[in-house]
Amino acid sequence: MKNENTDYKNIPGWGMDIDPDNEPTYPMKNYTGDDHKRSVYERSNQQHADVEILKSNERPALSAVLGNTVPPSGISGMIRRYAFKHSEDRYRHWIPLILADRVNVVEGIIEDLSRGIIPNIFAESGIRAAIRHNPKGLLKKAIITSAMAGVILYALKKKK
Description:
Layout: H1 74-83, H2 91-114, H3 121-124, H4 127-133, H5 135-159
Helix pairs in contact: 1-2, 4-5
C-alpha cells in the first residue's frame, strides 16, 4: 500500500534542521516572494547534551534532537573519535566506525563477565533465526570459520 500523505509541513518537527540560507534550487527557480516563508517557523530549543556527543565535521552544530544514552568509551570510543575527525565521504570515517562496533561488542562481553554476568552469545547472535531462515548461509559461514580456525591453529603449531 502506497503512503499518500505528502503534506510534510503538517508533521510536527519535520525539517527542523533545514538551513534557510542554503537553497539548492536558486539558479533554476523563479522566486515569487513566498518561497522563503516555508522555512520560517519557531525553531525548537537545542536538546541539552550531558554526555560527549560525536558529530560530523561537516555540520557546524549539533542536531536539534540527539541521542545521548551511550557516550563513547574505551577503545571503541577512541576509534570513534578518530573516525569523526574525518569527512563522511572517506573510508577513514566509515571503516573505523565499523571496527569500533565490533570492538564494542567485545568490550560489552568483557564488561558482562566482569560484573559476573555470563552472556548468552548463542542467543544474542541470532543463530536461531539463521537456522530457521538461512540455513545454507549459516552452514557456509560455519565451514569458512572452521577452515580459518584450522589454518590458524596449524600455523601456530608449525611455529612451535
